[in-house]
Amino acid sequence: MQQLKVCELFAGVGGFRLGLEKTGHYSVVWSNQWEPATKMQHASLVYEARFGSKNHSNTNIENVKTDDIPDHDVLVGGFPCQDYSVATSLKNSKGLLGKKGVLWWSIHRILSEKKNKPKYLFLENVDRLLKSPSTQRGRDFAVMLRSLSDLGYAVEWRVINAAEYGMPQRRRRVFFMAYHESTELFKSLKNSSPTDWILHDGVISNAFPVEKKAHTVVSFDLDEDLVALSNHFNTEKELSPFLNSGICIDGSISTLKTTPSYDGNPTVLSDILENGSADPNLYINDSDLAKWEYLKGAKKEIRRTKAGFEYKYSEGSMVFPDALDQPSRTIITGEGGKSPSRFKHVVQTKKGLRRLSPVELERLNMFPDNHTLLEGIPDAKRAFFMGNALVVGVVEQIGSALFQKISQVEKQFQS
Questions:
Q1: DSSP single-letter state for residue 44
Q2: CATH number reported for the structural domain that contains residue 42 in this entry
Q3: 3-state class of 286 per DSSP?
Q4: Do residue 194 and residue 104 come from a single domain?
Q5: Which of 28, 50, 261, 321 sits CB 3.0–4.6 Å from 209 for a disulfide?
Q6: Is residue 322 a contact partner of residue 353, using CB atoms and an 8 Å limit?
Q7: How far is CA 126 from CA 173, 241, 389, in A?
Q8: Looking at the domain assignment, is residue 381 inside a domain?
Q9: 405-414, pLDDT tens digit by residue?
Q10: How far is Cα 251 from Cα 254, in angstroms, rounded to an integer?
């Protein structure tokens, strides 16, 4: 089977591309990266420096015409987590309009308008997507699944914590794959029992095995009217009906809670450290130590709002310094810079306490060393990239499993 052509949206510094290209089965034919509200397009500059500027777009995707995007087999992207609710369009009562500036609807528009629709979608988001918004838990994901069903796609999803499969960072993300009705994979999913697909036959379970325990599948159908679904989904219940694994086909949901199955060795924080070569600027000054200890420590105190209102504030302590014999905590976008912080990583070394270097942050996401090193890009921005990035190893394993599954299923349907 030939390489699959990929369109990479919301590309950042190219995590999806790195993971897919590592398998040898994918070729990126077009990419887009645009950071709103910033003059310098730092992530796009890194992307072009690593992969070249050919077929790379640094324009707001909402302003890119679908005809300007070449046909592709796989559309991938880690799109921003926003409020995905829909409203009826004023111009056309049959049309649907997502909220302006919500980038899920750019994916939807491309899928709607493409004559040759991509056969496969490979998307990523924060796991909060399954329970957003707090007033209608699960509505946003329901809107996505219903709209993908309407466009002819079957979907499978899983919340994956990279560290539970031997990777160096505890980073939980929801990954979802979609298969167009024209593909053998769609037919294969449709002919499979939901439990079998989720537990062992699906693409994601092939990439990331789960325990075959006694599970109860929760099944329900999504309202066919997208506006009604957006307005009325789960308005009374407190919990989201979407569990950490599931499938959706023709608007019918089957979802169940799965447990990771991994018996390999873990990668821990000490495995990725630059031993002895870290920049001296990363070390914490003695004069700042008390501030770090306060921010990382447990608190029970009275605080005051600007308006003078007093309230009780409490929070638990963080491990300080970070445990070297465990996978790291999740990297956040504010990881860079010298200022003391509750959430930045701090490690104990022979020379003293220090923050993590840009290279170490890259390693925690399984990027090549110095992938984000570029003249004019400060270390704090490099840390920001990694706070936004995904773990490349997760993409590589799912990409590999997708290619193998397509080959396997096509052979079955040909024979």
A1: H
A2: 3.40.50.150
A3: helix
A4: yes
A5: 261
A6: no
A7: 5, 17, 11
A8: no
A9: 999 988 887 7
A10: 10
CB 229 within 8 A of CB 142: yes
The model's pLDDT over 177-233, given as tens digits with 9 standing for 90+, comes to 999 999 999 999 999 999 999 999 999 999 999 997 767 899 999 999 888 999 999
Query: 348 with 409, same domain?
Result: no
Inter-CA distances, 104 with 79, 146, 232, 317, Å: 7, 13, 20, 37
Which amino acid does the sequence have at 294? Y
Q: Which residues contact 56 (CB under 8 A, 6 or more apart)?
A: 11, 30, 31, 32, 33, 44, 47, 48
- The answer to whether position 312 is within a domain reads yes
Helix (H/G/I), strand (E/B), else coil: 78 = strand
Set 81, 323, 332, 374: catalytic member: 81
**309: domain range?**
269-355
**Residues 104 and 126 occupy one common structural domain:** yes
Tokens of 327: 């996978």
**76 plus 118 within the same structural domain:** yes
Is 313 within a domain? Answer: yes
Give the pair of three-digit tokens for residue 151: 């466009």
Annotation says 7 is catalytic: no
Whether 219 and 347 map to the same domain: the answer is: no
How far is it, in rounded angstroms, from Cα 81 to Cα 274? 33
